[in-house]
Write a structure and sequence with these properties.
Length: 775
């Protein structure tokens, strides 16, 4: 219970990257704790001062004996200091101090300078009597002198170096010179740098890394703690120790179990599951990771990430997701060099540190959204990570030593392959994950999403029932997406609303047979009622009726989610000539697109709006040229009856949702149909959608994304779909129930397209006759 009172003179340090402070204090005197007054937030105690310097000088009694002791101490101290290099200013100052300071203060000062263990220092501090203090310190001085003599004998030539070190760091330097090994060990226990060194030596890092670490720790030992670099180096070394150089989980892979697990976690997506199983089977047979890197490409919310997680689960590996969306600096992947302030390792190394094993499953999310900037190209950095030939010696700039990534299983996800840099694409095997049909969505909702949401909201199936018709309503009228993410959110909203009802019911419900549905008006009524009956509710609790599940029907849905957001707008929008429905593919899945055209007096100009790319503009020109050249055949005229469609006429073509950039050739047939309707004055069938590229001769060429487009048309309630003849093979991928709902028209030329798009066909011959008679 003895301590030292001290005055804080200076506080240096910083909070970054970790709080790290150095406190400079001047010791004043010893004190003893009489009574502890409080411990928090900081200790406060009643203390008694134990030593006062002037007191010692006045003590006559033991003066003689003390005099002898202090004289003896002084001699040893002088001997010790003179063994050092007097040319060093710090040593010369120490020598002067010995003469100038009162003798009584010397034991404390010298104990703090010479090499002593913490234990010994504490003993000296505990020695309140001056005589005792001198007696205890003298042997320490002698030990130091002996040590120094020994050292001078053995290391004569190096002596100068040691002293130079002394000059820079007077306090530490003396501790550098001497020492018996036991002392050293005792102090080592308290010294975390030494602990760190031990950890480094016992860790299983690579030889190269060990070499670097040992060099760094040597530097660290010589560095004052207040230097910013000290914290930096320490952090570096701690990271090196923490990295899983050799630590891995054991793979447990059994294909049959993997199949069951994948099937349990995910409904539908047969193609993806099949490919994943093949991949895993190859890995089981051939214990070699140098396979392709899988990349799941598909719209958001179709389960790409969750399949990645399932793969990790089947393999019994750790899972880590690295979001790459918006990353535009290569040091995000590969780390910053340690020379920068605030340097950090890249995401790969950070991920490894987080999972703590060297064979996790890393999911590189959104590789198609990697950016590029002045700070280098992150995609190029990823190349090294993903290339099995190179990644066994991946060098993060921060680590500056190679780390073996060959055990890591990488899986990538993307919305589209169009924006993935080609070199990166080349290293991956693309697996398309298309959107879901309505039926699949209903199944997914009832098998996976609803049970998950119920659990998250603390509800049970006894409390809420969502019938399949309601789910279908949510899917068709409240969401318009390829995946199931918004559906999941809507189900979450329903669960929240029901949770409120259930919670209210548990505490306050007094009415015996409440209507089962959570309507809004009902809710208001309920609240006011509660307010009235609150005082009696406690006693009424006993009389609660057995709980009824809350059934979510269409009315409840409307109250919870508001009025439907999407209505079938198709028939309404096709009520005038000059509108046709096209099918577009976007990274978010397929979509239906209304193409609108109008004509007005003018000079034969074509105006295109709706943020179109060059290819789309070309399609529009192609369409007009084809129609102009076939105007007579189809009896198409402009407003003044001329077959030259652009004579005194301007045409405006618009592709709605103008904020979205659109490009690609697949709108060709739609533009032709739309213009044909405009010039013929006939309406396009309201349940027909189409896609296909056109040529100047009127041929229809195949296009991509048929499955997503067909699903979009199905979602929108369309019945007939015109696709290019050569895309017929793509229909096989589409679920049978969707195919049954739709009629497909395979078109190889524009005549067939127009015939299918208009009720009663778009005939050629009879009109030619009429044309003759007119002339
Ligand atoms: P993505 O990564 O494709 O954008 P997620 O993997 O995040 O989508 O999926 C969103 C949610 O939808 C997840 O909660 C996932 O469990 C669920 N989900 C998607 N597809 C399926 C499916 N086929 N079966 C079960 N749940 C699914």
């Amino acid at each position: 219970r003895i301590g030292t009172a001290a005055l804080a003179v200076q506080v240096v340090g910083s909070n970054w990257p970790k709080p790290h402070y150095t406190l400079l204090v001047t010791g004043l005197c010893r004190f003893q704790i009489l009574q502890l007054l409080k411990e928090k937030p900081y200790p406060v105690a009643e203390v008694e001062q134990l030593d006062r310097l002037e007191q010692f000088t006045n003590q006559h009694k033991s003066e003689e004996e003390l005099g002898e002791l202090s004289e003896q101490f002084y001699k040893y101290a002088v001997q010790l200091v003179e063994m050092l290099d007097m040319s060093v200013p710090a040593v010369a100052k120490l020598r002067r101090l010995l003469d100038n300071l009162p003798r009584e203060a010397l034991p404390d000062i010298l104990t703090s300078i010479i090499r002593t263990s913490n234990q010994e220092k504490l003993q000296i501090l505990d020695a309140v009597r001056l005589e005792e203090r001198f007696k205890m310190t003298i042997p320490l001085l002698v030990r130091q002198i002996e040590g120094l003599k020994l050292l001078q004998k053995t290391r004569k030539p190096k002596q100068d170096d040691d002293k130079r070190v002394v000059a820079i760091r007077p306090n530490r330097r003396i501790s550098h010179i001497p020492s018996t090994t036991e002392d050293e060990e005792e102090e080592e226990d308290h010294d975390d740098v030494v602990m760190l060194e031990k950890k480094i030596r016992t860790s299983s890092m690579s030889e190269q890394a060990l070499k670097v670490c040992l060099k760094e720790i040597k530097r660290l030992k010589k560095m004052p703690q207040s230097m910013p670099e000290y914290a930096l180096t320490r952090n570096y070394l701690e990271l090196m120790v923490e990295l899983p150089w050799n630590k891995s989980t054991k793979d447990r892979l059994e294909i049959r179990a993997a199949r069951i697990l994948l099937d349990n976690d995910h409904y539908a997506m047969e193609k993806l599951k099949k490919r994943v199983l093949e991949y895993l089977a190859v890995r089981q047979l051939k214990n070699n990771l140098k396979g392709p890197i899988l990349c799941f490409v598909g719209p958001p919310g179709v389960g790409k990430t969750s399949v990645g997680r399932s793969i990790a689960k089947t393999l019994g590996r750790e899972f880590h997701r690295i979001a790459l969306g918006g990353v535009c600096d290569q040091s995000d992947i590969r780390g910053h060099r340690r020379t920068y302030v605030g340097s950090m390792p890249g995401r790969i190394i950070n991920g490894l540190k987080t999972v703590g094993v060297n064979n996790p499953v890393f999911l590189l999310d959104e590789v198609d959204k990697l950016g590029k900037s002045l700070q280098g190209d992150p995609a190029a950095a990823l190349l090294e990570v993903l290339d099995p030939e190179q990644n066994h010696s991946f060098t993060d700039h921060y680590l500056n030593v190679a780390f073996d990534l060959s055990q890591v299983l990488f899986i990538a996800t993307a919305n589209t392959t169009a924006t993935i840099p080609p070199a990166l694409l080349d290293r991956m095997e693309i697996i398309q994950v298309p959107g879901y049909t309505q039926e699949e969505k209903i199944e997914i909702a009832h098998r996976h999403l609803i049970p998950k949401q119920l659990e998250q909201h603390g509800l049970t199936p006894q409390q809420i029932q969502i019938p399949q018709v309601t789910t279908l309503d949510i899917i068709t009228r409240y969401t318009r997406e390829a995946g199931v993410r918004s559906l999941d959110r809507k189900l979450g909203a329903i669960c929240r609303a029901v949770a409120v009802k259930v919670a209210e019911g548990q505490h306050k419900e007094t009415k015996p047979d409440r209507p089962e549905v959570g309507e809004g008006e009902d809710c208001k009524e309920h609240v006011t009622e509660d307010a009235k009956t609150e005082s009696i509710s406690d006693t009424a609790d006993l009389a609660l009726p057995p709980e009824m599940p809350i059934l979510i029907d269409f009315h409840a849905l409307k109250d919870i989610l508001g009025p439907p957001m999407y209505e079938m707008e198709v028939s309404e929008r096709l009520s005038q000539p000059g509108v046709a429905i096209g099918l577009a593919w976007t990274p978010l899945g397929g979509e239906i697109m209304f193409v609108e055209a109008s004509r007005m007096d003018g000079e034969g100009q074509l105006t295109l709006t709706g943020q179109l790319g060059d290819v789309m503009k070309e399609s529009a020109h192609l369409a007009i040229s084809w129609l102009r050249s076939n105007a007579k055949r189809y009896q198409l005229t402009n407003a003044s009856g001329s077959f030259d469609l652009l004579d005194n006429t301007d045409i405006h073509l618009h592709f709605p949702a103008g904020a979205v950039t659109k490009d690609g050739p697949s709108a060709g047939v739609t533009i032709v149909t739309c213009l044909a309707s405009l010039f013929s004055g006939r309406l396009v069938c309201s349940d027909v959608a189409m896609t296909g590229e056109i040529t100047l001769r009127g041929l229809v060429l195949p296009v991509g994304g048929i499955k997503d487009k067909v699903l979009a048309a199905h979602r929108a309630g369309l019945k007939r779909i015109i696709i290019p003849q050569r895309n017929e093979k793509d229909l096989e991928e589409i679920a049978v129930n969707v195919r049954q709902d739709l009629t497909f028209v395979m078109a190889s030329c524009l005549d067939e397209v127009l015939n299918a798009a208009f009720d009663g066909g778009f005939a050629v011959k009879p009109r030619v006759e009429r044309l003759n008679s007119k002339l």
